[in-house]
Amino acid sequence: MKRFFITLAYNGKNYVGWQVQPNGISVQQKVQEALSTLLRKPIGIVGAGRTDAGVHAKKMVAHFNWEGEPFTRLDLIKKLNGFLPKDIAVDDIYEVRPDAHARFSAISRTYTYYVTTQKDPFLYELKYRVFFDPDIALMNTLCGILTEYKDFTSFSKLHSDVKTNNCRIEKAVWEKKGNDYVFTITANRFLRNMVRAIVGTLLDAGRGRIDEEGFRHIIESKNRNLAGTSAPAYALFLDDIVYPIDIRLEEK
To answer: CA-to-CA distance for 61 and 119, rounded, in angstroms?
Structure first.
């Protein structure tokens, strides 16, 4: 049996998230159905993580196993893109080591969140509009504080089914680009709702509601109720997932 990684991008507006759920259509469901139809066997895929309802991905990675007749990689990609809805696009499919796992083999994940102070009729569904000019210097100071901690219970969805709330944040930074404020964060793993909770809390700081001492208190309290309201899902993108360089097998 061979294992393959599939990389894809999607607009999350019309989905209940990545993971299959009983209350609506998910991205995982659509990809599994397309693969199963084209390969003429039931195919289950395992994603690198699960994005919330409405969250987008510029690069999601999933794996699936295959023991049938060999397929032509480029042909399958083309057929999948013809079969899938317009808001899901497959970028690549490639064979990986048999022990490779889309979720557990990942070294890091990067998310980007887009905030704007400008009314834009074309991008209002992809950027979160705020009605103040955030203090980006203070928000970046607080981003540095994030890298000092490991337990992010204060930014996690309550009653989630994870064994630990520890994460290693490698990078967190805000950049001002014209009327936009772009937040980028990279970590080895993320908790459910974590990025949106962090963004909401940092924006509270950016409008003068939280200082450095207050931000540390929020993290150290391990109390979600003390952190800010989660920022809307529609402005959040899963940007990249990094794996060991030797995980991909050379094509024969």
So the answer is: 33
- CB 218 within 8 Å of CB 210: yes
Which residues participate in catalysis according to the annotation?
A: 52
Tokens encoding 218: 């929020």
Question: Residue 159 has what pLDDT?
Answer: 62
Mention the CATH class of domain 2-104.
alpha beta
Question: What is the per-residue pLDDT across 150-188, written as a single tens digit (0 to 9) for each?
Answer: 999 999 987 666 789 999 999 999 999 999 999 999 999
Return the closest-CA partner of residue 116 out of 161, 181, 165: 181
pLDDT at 14 over 90: yes
Say which CATH architecture domain 109-239 belongs to.
2-Layer Sandwich (3.30)
Q: Are residues 174 and 182 in contact, defined by beta-carbon separation less than 8 angstroms?
A: yes
- Over residues 61-109, the pLDDT tens digits come to 999 999 988 899 999 999 999 999 999 999 999 999 999 999 999 999 9
Roughly how many angstroms between the first and final C-alpha of the chain, as a whole number?
Answer: 16
Full-model pTM: 0.95
Output the CA torsion 247→172→197→136 (10° steps): -150
